[in-house]
């Protein structure tokens, strides 16, 4: 993950998140995300390429008022659908029984 200009921009490969404007771009195309998915993306990009546990994600996103895990899975699904869509190389990765991470697919696993 690359931070540009005091972390106002997060970048992992061709995925760029402009924090001030909340704009997300992959390969030059703007990606529209709901608020929950944007928050999730921000956490994952800040931690990239490290795995973020499901518990830590829930804590960072919802604090003490954690919903059931279905909400996290829903946000991950929406994030994958929006970010990775029909692209052959995927940014969003699941680490079974642990959590999730964002990695530059051009660099391999």
Structure, described:
Helices cover 34% and strands 26% of the residues. The model has no long low-confidence stretch (mean pLDDT 90). The chain has one domain: Arc Repressor Mutant, subunit A (Orthogonal Bundle). The strands form 2 sheets. The chain has a 5-stranded antiparallel sheet, with helices on one face. Strands 6-8-7 form a 3-stranded antiparallel sheet. Strand 3 and strand 4 form a beta hairpin. With 109 residues, it is an alpha+beta fold. The protein has 3 helices and 8 strands. Helix 1 crosses helix 3.
State the main characteristics:
109 residues, alpha+beta, five-stranded antiparallel sheet, 34% helix
- Give the end-to-end Cα distance, rounded to a whole number of Å: 15 Å
CATH superfamily caption: Winged helix-like DNA-binding domain superfamily/Winged helix DNA-binding domain
Radius of gyration: 13 Å
Instruction: Please state the overall shape, judged from the principal axes of the Cα atoms.
Output: globular
Known CATH architecture: Orthogonal Bundle
CATH class category label: Mainly Alpha
For the residues shown, what is the average pLDDT? Answer: 90
């Amino acid at each position: 993950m690359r931070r540009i200009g005091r972390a106002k921009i997060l970048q992992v490969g061709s995925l760029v998140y402009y924090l001030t404007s909340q704009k997300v771009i992959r390969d030059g195309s703007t990606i529209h995300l709901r608020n929950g998915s944007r928050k999730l993306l921000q956490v994952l990009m800040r931690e990239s390429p490290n795995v973020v546990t499901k518990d830590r994600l829930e804590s960072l996103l919802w604090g003490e008022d954690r919903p059931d895990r279905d909400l996290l899975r829903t946000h991950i699904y929406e994030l994958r659908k929006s970010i990775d869509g029909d692209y052959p190389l995927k940014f969003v990765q699941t680490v079974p029984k642990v959590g999730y991470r964002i990695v530059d697919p051009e660099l391999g696993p």
